[in-house]
Amino acid sequence: MSDAIVPHKADVTHQSDAGAQRAPFRSGRWLGRAIESDLFYSFRRSRVTMIAAAVTALFFLVAVFAPLIAVQNPFDPAQLELMNSRIAPLWTADGQTPFLLGTDEQGRDVFSAILYGLRISLAVGVLGVLFSGTLGIALGLIAGYVGGAVDGLIMRIADVQLTFPAILIALLIDGVAKSLFGNRLDAVSTLAVLVFAIGLSFWVQYARTVRGSVMVEKNKDYVAAAQLIGLPAPVIMLRHVLPNAMGPILVIATINLALAIITEATLSFLGAGMPDTMPSLGTLIRIGNNYLFSGEWWIVAFPGFALAALILSINLLGDWLRDALNPKLR
What we know:
Blueprint: H1 9-35, H2 38-45, H3 47-64, H4 66-69, H5 110-146, H6 148-162, H7 166-181, H8 187-201, H9 203-217, H10 221-228, H11 233-241, H12 246-269, H13 281-289, H14 298-324
């Protein structure tokens, strides 16, 4: 015991300092690898993609910070005045401050309504993609890994759903929910119904893509080795098989985000989406369409332009990501 080597306090301190210095070094090395990757190089080479990413990020930022940017809360009836209804944009002869893009028939500032409408549209789109992606990935993993009758049942359900347009499925689910609950659906419940309807409309693409990747990967040696050491099937599927299918999944998710936002806007335009008291971009377009031929063009024009710019930027990002992750185009 007397001959035992006891580390000096200074050595322990030196070792702990060295360990503390290695953590940021590793994170810096990871960041360096990301910057030097082929994906980031492809991103820097495409000006269109960089502009699309900047526009998409701008839409998300103004949606998050809408309460700080907007001149009023268009969802709060106490802040609305009918005397301010149908005011033209600020740069026209009939414009008034602080209504930059004019007002609608309820006295809502169109610019503020677009900012808050973006929050609803992006929330429905992102949550819908997360729900459909989770459902589709889970069913695709089960179908590809288990196979047999389970695979046949899941794929036949997917084939049947592919025969119907996504908007028709979303309308059907939304209509059933509203017929069951009626006026008991508030704005938050309506948003949840929209997320559920849109999510069930787009899970098939994830399931078919993941199933194909799993059927290829499950016959490889690393899966057999994982099975040999006794790893459970869910661990093998999630930790070892799923990462090999993440490239196509990211592309599908990006494209489906734009489709989910369009679907929500279509449902709201048809009157099956968000209510007038909590409008999304589709609801704003529907409201403005009623006043288009009476000369109040700004009520529909600016929400429509915002929706078109958002969808275009997301689609451009999806097209770039599809080409960047395609090994045949590298």
